[in-house]
Write a structure and sequence with these properties.
heterodimer, A: 208 residues, alpha+beta, Alpha-Beta Plaits, two-stranded antiparallel ribbon, 7 helices, 6 strands, globular, B: 83 residues, mainly alpha, 3 helices, 43% helix, rod-shaped
Amino acid sequence: MARMKFLCDAERCIECNGCVTACKNENEVPWGVNRRRVVTINDGVIGAEKSISVACMHCSDAPCMAVCPVDCFYRTDDGVVLHDKDLCIGCGYCFYACPFGAPQFPQAGAFGLRGKMDKCTFCAGGPEPDRSEAEFKKYGRNRLAEGRLPACAEMCSTKALLGGDGDVIADIYRERTTRRNKGFEAWGWGTAYGAGNKGAAPAAGGKS
Amino acid sequence: MRPALLVAAAAAAALLAGCMEVEQTGAGPAKLGKYQGKPDTPAWNNAPLAQGPKWASGDRASWEAEIKQRQSAQNEYQRIERQ
């Protein structure tokens, strides 16, 4: 059984925002809502700038699901976290619970009215008849029901953003890191938090 | 006297029944922590499009095989070496 996940390779992401554009175009996401965003740290610092594409991570133990007062979230057999917009009351609890800022709320009408929550669906639509007009209008395109992967991952020009079964994309990423001569040190504490040389200047231009 | 009282009590009970709270969901009373929305159909239950990946409608294994092949195509090391 697949567990659909996204994985963004920060070494490859070039902050082109192609994934953001692909998502907006494929799902006709309303103005002001970005289901996917590219976050950059150390912007402009040579050799230290890193970008990563962020959307709903389809958590295995999703906090949005846990806090929803109307229980409008569900997880598909593929591990994709989706929600029923007919039940959503737009309370925003999921937004506060989500560590990735994935839930978005369209701001429309007078008095800053907050609409129903919108988020990345892993291009899997929602609880409407698959590939129907109603599903497209509420949730966007159902590419999984077309046998395709999310548009953002398939459109990524550098293949920094991978989408699919967690095991498959982890294997792809592992092969990449070993080919970059980042064998065993590519995994674990040292890679995540540094080798202990705190305060050292970021590498200039070289491989980080 | 007593039948009149009984009728009045029955009428009061019938009137109060009209004050019941309206159900908020179509699937009966809400259960805490359980999804309350409409059921969704799995992706593999759809027929494949005229163009694009092909699988047998309703056959999960064939759909998963197709989507796995697509996932593996994201690995350009393998894709290039295969060509």
